[in-house]
Amino acid sequence: MKTAGDILSALFDKQFVEKAQGYSKFFDSWTDITAKNGIASASAHSRIKDLDRGIVLIEMDHPGWKQILQTKQSKLLNDFRIRFPELEISGISLMLGFGDSQTEPQAEDEAETVAKIAVAEEPLAVSESAPQGYDAIKDEDFREKLVKLGQTVADREKRKTGERAQTS
Asked: pLDDT at residue 22 above 90?
């Protein structure tokens, strides 16, 4: 019995097959690249959607993951360029998605994701016992990441403000 590789080799020339295998490796590299950059959990909520004219299109399922990926965007781009120089990657575009064309499995089912997003974005009725802010997010791991991201942004802003004050 012939393997799929044998059949493809018979149908297409060797150069075409190698190029196709290179693209396959590129799309499969997302989990490794996110792990290398300390954001392994992002791969369960995002994926490489396309490579268009040197721009890697990354799609994610929530705005919080977009913010986390933005903090590592230059490192991710550098890793893509090193791993796949033949693709001449010049940038990364981050976009929300996973609509009807979702092909990647998520760590949790869609109903749970929708419920978490609804909890995070829905205004709460005013009461003394209703959780507010980060406390409204039920997913502890996600809440912790958002808190850390907020702290990092706040620290950067403090440094920028301090640098401006010193130069004035």
From this structure: no
> What residue ranges define each of the domains in the chain, with the CATH number in brackets?
15-104 (3.30.300.180), 108-161 (no CATH)
From 104, 78, 103, 82, select the one nearest 91 (Cα to Cα). 78
pLDDT digits (tens, 9 = 90+) for 101-115: 444 444 445 445 444
The count of C-alpha atoms lying within 13 angstroms of the C-alpha of 115, restricted to the half-sphere facing its C-beta, is 7
Based on DSSP, count helices (H) and strands (E) in the chain, helices before strands. 7, 3
Residue 60 in contact with residue 30, Cβ under 8 Å? no
Long-range contact set of residues 46-51: C-beta below 8 Å, sequence gap at least 24: 47/98, 47/103, 47/104, 49/95, 49/97, 51/23, 51/26, 51/87, 51/89
Enter the pTM of the model. Answer: 0.51
Residue 65: pLDDT above 60?
Answer: yes
Contacts of 76 (CB under 8 A, 6+ apart): 33, 34, 37, 58, 69, 92
Give the whole-angstrom CA distance, residue 43 versus residue 58: 10
Q: What is the DSSP letter of 132?
A: -
